[in-house]
Amino acid sequence: MRLIPREEKFYDLFEELADKIDEGAKLFLDMLHDYDSFATRLIKLKELEHEADVITHRTYEKMHKTFLTPLDREDIYALVNKMDSILDMTEAAAIRMSLYKIKYPSPELLEQAKLLNVATEKVKKIIQGLRDMKNAPMILEACVEINTIENAGDQILRTTMAKLFETETDPIELIKWKEIFERFEETLDVCEDVSNIVEGIVLKNG
Predict the structure, then answer these.
(1) Could you tell me if residue 127 is inside a domain?
(2) How far is it, in rounded angstroms, from Cα 137 to Cα 140?
(3) Whole domain around residue 102: which residue ranges?
(4) Closest CA to 180 of 95, 83, 88
(5) In this model, does residue 35 exceed pLDDT 60?
(6) Is residue 2 in a domain?
(7) Gap between the Cα atoms of 124 and 181, Å rounded
(8) I need a surface site. Which of 86, 142, 153, 203 has the fewest CB within 10 A?
(9) How confident is the model at residue 191 (pLDDT cuts 50, 70, 90)?
(10) Is residue 113 assigned to a domain?
(11) 136-167 and 171-205 helices cross at what angle (nearest 10)?
């Protein structure tokens, strides 16, 4: 029996943030599929990113005000910081597409966006599982799956970069697309960072 109850509200905040991340990934994929409405729906993506920032800062504030947190403070900080970065990177890629006046999304970017959707669903799953360490086997399995997704994203990026440098004759277009692809690949990298943090939490507390 705990002498001092731990504040469980943190799990609500983690899950709320995971929902925003997953919503943002789905919205970005929808924006690519319906590219004519990209600029209009970018406003919604920016709103989601702002809402995620608010949740992140609410978590920080609660951490400072709570005597006994359900997880180590450094783990809470690292977790929400990296989770928030997923949506930051998604928004950054979308903004660059708008600023650079990209005429249409490439098939490779669509593939990356689909991978991100799968990855954020897995992130949502492992975050929901954190409430009960009996979920440790499921969480660890999903963490491995996120790592596999990130590796697939790396492979798409390598293939895409090789194709881009081989076929793109306009250096300005090459620079634009290189930055967009690399920035978006970072979203998958950060999903893996989140899974690594969660894996560490489970191994420490399971």
Answers:
(1) yes
(2) 5
(3) 9-205
(4) 95
(5) yes
(6) no
(7) 24
(8) 203
(9) very high
(10) yes
(11) 170
Written in H, E and C, the secondary structure of the chain is: CCCCCCCCHHHHHHHHHHHHHHHHHHHHHHHHHCHHHHHHHHHHHHHHHHHHHHHHHHHHHHHHHCCCCCCCHHHHHHHHHHHHHHHHHHHHHHHHHHHCCCCCCCHHHHHHHHHHHHHHHHHHHHHHHCCCHHHHHHHHHHHHHHHHHHHHHHHHHHHHHHHHHHHCCCHHHHHHHHHHHHHHHHHHHHHHHHHHHHHHHHHHHC
CATH number at residue 184: 1.20.58.220
CA 90, CA 92: separation in Å to the nearest integer? 5
Q: Which amino acid is at 19?
A: D
Axis crossing angle, helix 107-129 with helix 171-205, rounded to the nearest 10? 20
- Whether the CB-CB separation of 126 and 197 falls below 8 Å is answered with no
